[in-house]
Amino acid sequence: MRFRIELSAEAERDFAVIFDQLFEIYLGFGETVESALDHCEERIRDIRQEADLLPSLRQLTIDRAIYWFGVKKAKQRICVLAIIVGRHNQVRHTPSRLLAP
């Protein structure tokens, strides 16, 4: 049985936060704005491609990106609820965020 990956709106917003953080980091390393943007786009694309999640897991770390997700067996879908990379402050707040209505 093959599951379809489904990203929540919150997970999509996480990509925007990750992009912004990476952009600042790459600029801090001395990259040009154009190079930093290219580097960020490449990294986000890599993270999205690495989201081939196993249905039995609820949290998975791939290349320092933590994926929180739920499985909808009846619909054969995996719903990615949050994505956190690196030192993101929300790592310790993610479980409570996922339980909020």
Write a structural description.
The chain is of the alpha+beta class and 101 residues long. The chain has one domain: YaeB-like fold (2-Layer Sandwich), CATH 3.30.2310. 43% of the residues lie in helices and 25% in strands. The chain has three helices and four strands. A four-stranded mixed sheet has the order 1-4-3-2. α1 packs antiparallel against α2. The chain starts with a strand and ends with a helix.
Q: How large, in whole angstroms, is the Cα Rg?
A: 15 Å
Bulk shape:
elongated
**How is the largest sheet built, in terms of strand order?**
1-4-3-2
Task: Please name the fourth-level CATH homologous superfamily.
Answer: RelE-like
Order of helices and strands: EHHEEEH
What low-confidence regions span 5 or more consecutive residues with pLDDT below 50? Answer: none
Q: What is the first-to-last residue Cα distance?
A: 30 Å
Nearest-integer average pLDDT: 78
Give the amount of beta strand, in percent: 15-25%
Query: Could you please say which CATH topology applies here?
Result: YaeB-like fold
The CATH C-level name is Alpha Beta
- Tell me how many strands there are: 4
The CATH architecture category equals 2-Layer Sandwich
Helical coverage, percent range:
40-55%
Number of helices: 3
Query: For the report, how would you describe the main beta sheet?
Result: 4 strands, mixed
- Class from helix and strand fractions: alpha+beta
Number of domains: 1
